[in-house]
């Protein structure tokens, strides 16, 4: 089967455009931890207090107990405030948990398919 050079070029251009669009969407979906931190730090002191965290997150209708547990996990040194570094580490730990859960789910599905 012969493919004309024009069709090949058109296919390459469409493929390239699609990949660029997909990459741009991936960049937009990734939250910027520093921007998130600044939005949560209402008094701009460089730390997020539990009250600041609850006030901003409460809009998402997350139960207070869950917010307090999330905050506690981020506050690595348990001093009552979350620094930028602690916040970034907390986000990274959350991402790692999500990845681990997805991996475990995929493995379970693979095992079920084999049976």
Q: Which secondary structure elements does this structure contain, and how are they paired or packed?
A:
Layout: H1 5-29, H2 33-40, E1 48-49, H3 50-57, H4 64-74, E2 81-82, H5 84-114
Antiparallel strand pairs: 1-2
Helix pairs in contact: 3-4
Protein name: Calcium-binding protein
Pfam family, one: EF-hand_7
Signal peptide: 1-24
| Average of per-residue pLDDT values | 80
Order of helices and strands: HHEHHEH
Q: CATH H-level name of the largest domain... which superfamily?
A: EF-hand
Stretches with pLDDT under 50, minimum 5 residues? none
Helix content: over 70%
Oligomeric nature of the chains = single chain
Could you tell me the number of beta strands? 2
Query: Rough shape?
Result: flat
Structural class: mainly alpha
Task: Output the CATH topology of the largest domain.
Answer: Recoverin, domain 1
User: Gap between N and C termini, in Å?
Assistant: 41 Å
Total domains: 2
Give the neighbour order of strands across the main sheet: 1-2
Largest sheet: 2 strands, antiparallel
Our count of helices gives 5
Share of residues in strands: under 5%
Keywords: Signal
Domain EF-hand: 28-63, 65-97
InterPro entries: EF-hand-dom_pair, EF_Hand_1_Ca_BS, EF_hand_dom
GO molecular function, one term: calcium ion binding
């Amino acid at each position: 089967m012969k493919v004309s050079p024009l069709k090949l070029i058109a296919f390459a251009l469409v493929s390239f455009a699609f990949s660029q669009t997909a990459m741009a969407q991936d960049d937009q979906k990734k939250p910027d931890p520093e921007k998130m931190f600044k939005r949560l730090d209402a008094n701009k002191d460089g730390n997020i207090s539990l009250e600041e965290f609850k006030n901003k997150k409460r809009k998402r209708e997350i139960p207070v107990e869950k917010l307090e547990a999330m905050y506690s996990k981020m506050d690595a040194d348990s001093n009552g405030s979350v620094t930028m570094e602690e916040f970034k580490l907390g986000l990274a730990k959350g991402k790692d948990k999500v990845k681990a859960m997805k991996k475990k789910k995929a493995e379970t599905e693979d095992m079920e398919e084999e049976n």
